[in-house]
Write a structure and sequence with these properties.
about 40% helix; globular; alpha/beta; about 200 residues; 7 strands; two-stranded antiparallel ribbon; five-stranded parallel sheet
Length: about 200
């Protein structure tokens, strides 16, 4: 199994890169796991308490479960991926049955901060985008998809997103094997990653 980690700041275009890499590849051979599914369970907290959690800090992620699940997949086992709700700031009772694939792509802003997780990645990719561009994308997404208002998104960006990006996410660029500048469609970097995957699954 080839495991690829795709990191980068919020709104950097990681999901777009994942889609570009998967384009023209057999979907039966490639699976995707999102770090967002592995936010820690917080059922013991009220909604207001959960809303105050710093979700851009590594301690918000259940890395132990993510590492365990990836090891299970490598051993050919099927896993039950958690389902996380950004509306309630908590896991739901649902899970997604995820089967082993020849290639697993793990994407998320904090995945390169964890040494155990990094050790599992055969290829580490960092998607870089200008901070203004990332803020604009985050605004559009959180308002349209997550029910946030403008003030809430901007406050969270200034108080947690920006400082957490500078403290934890940007430094992980040093661990990347490939850095993809996502200011424009970067066909060369995408083709390089796709070529490695194709070689592995043929």
């Amino acid at each position: 199994m080839l495991i690829i980690g795709i990191a980068g700041g919020t709104g950097s275009g990681k999901t777009t890169v994942v889609h570009q890499i998967m384009n023209e590849l057999p979907h039966t051979e490639v699976g995707v796991i999102s770090q967002d599914s592995y936010y820690k369970e917080n059922k013991n907290l009220s909604f207001d308490e959960r809303a105050l959690i710093n979700f851009d800090h590594p301690r918000a992620i259940d890395f132990d479960l993510l590492v365990s699940h990836l090891n299970d997949l490598k051993e050919g086992k099927t896993i039950d991926q958690p389902v996380y709700s950004f509306i309630t700031h908590n896991r739901t009772d649902d899970t997604i049955s995820t089967h082993p694939r020849k290639v697993m792509i793990v994407e998320g802003i904090l995945i390169l901060t964890n040494p155990e997780l990094r050790a599992l990645f055969d290829i580490k990719v960092y998607v870089h985008a200008d901070s203004d561009e990332r803020l604009i994308r985050r605004l559009k997404r959180d308002i349209a998809e997550r029910g946030r208002d403008l003030d809430e998104v901007l406050t969270r960006y200034q108080n947690t997103l920006k400082p957490m990006h500078e403290q934890f996410i940007e430094p992980t660029k040093a661990f990347a094997d490939i850095i993809i500048p996502n200011d424009k469609y970067n066909t060369v970097a995408i083709d390089v990653v796709r070529a490695v995957i194709t070689q592995r699954i043929l």
